[in-house]
Amino acid sequence: MSSRVKSKQANRIVREQLAAEQRRRRTIVVSIVAAAVLLLAGLVGIGIYVNQKPAANSAVPAGTTSDHTGIQISSGPVPMDIYIDYLCPNCKRFEDGAQSTLDDLATKKKISLVYHPIAILDHSTNPPGYSTRAGSAAGCASDAGKFAEYTRALFAQQPAEGSAGLTDDQLVQIGSGIGLTDPGFGQCVRAEKYADWMAHNTDAAAAKNINSTPTVLVNGKPVSPTVDAILKAVG
What architecture does CATH give domain 71-234? Predict the structure, then answer.
């Protein structure tokens, strides 16, 4: 065999070895990337799961949904979720204008109505925190089966943005006005028993890109918070 042939064979062997090494490296890189993607997906999944569940030691009101982010008012074939902040003037206007329609749809069992109290306006009172305190008090009212009535009463006496908000005593008095006279209700309000629940609700809403109130979802899709839009969406 000539030296030229031997040289060609040696070069071919080297090229084959280099190609094999490149394939091995690509396989390793692809494996590492795939593992990283799976790890990231797992971390995201864990984060979503954590956001869906309050802390194990957090109290949740009676009547909450399975994910503990809302209070169910009625049952029906069409799911409707309403996100409210008790300091939000637009929420009050929405409730004033849509209350009779929502009551009618709920009474006729057309909708599964769920309210999600959130606290995106906590910073809008002085001192901050009224939205959380009011939402926690609404949770206390839910324990007594009067969430809807208490919500309406809260909006009827809604304080102005920039004010101190209603005091705990006033929140308790509002409950007394709708029949919540058990001392346990007042204790629940003053202890802000459901403050952590409100924080969880607010975080869960933010995770769904819900950062304004009122937000109305029908069948999981946002609709304008007007009577006409709601009736059209419900069908």
Answer: 3-Layer(aba) Sandwich (3.40)
